[in-house]
């Protein structure tokens, strides 16, 4: 295989095989570019999923902390004084 590739590389540009060689390189480059674009699309989807999960966690934690804060602020102090702590 290496010998045939070396032989193709020595052919003059006007030879018909050099055109096939150029087309093979162009096809290879196009395939590499399509693969890179697909991988970037997958990474973008993963990043969007991660960001959405972080937003959901932030929203839930904000709701819980708000409920806890208002529960502590608006509870009468008499309740804490009368509670059995031990």
Describe this structure in words.
By secondary structure, this protein is mainly alpha-helical. It has three helices and no strands.
Task: Please give a handful of descriptors for the protein shown.
86 residues; 84% helix; rod-shaped
Short structural summary:
By secondary structure, the chain is an all-alpha fold. It has helices at 2-9, 16-73, 77-82.
By helix and strand content, what is the structural category?
Answer: mainly alpha
How would you describe the shape?
Answer: rod-shaped
Per DSSP, the total helix count is 3
Largest sheet: none
The amount of beta strand, in percent, is under 5%
Q: Mean of residue pLDDT?
A: 83
Number of strands: 0
Radius of gyration: 33 Å
- Which ranges are low-confidence, i.e. pLDDT below 50, for 5 or more consecutive residues? none
Helix and strand pattern: HHH
Helical proportion?
A: over 70%
CA-CA gap between termini: 84 Å
Layout of secondary structure:
Blueprint: H1 2-9, H2 16-73, H3 77-82
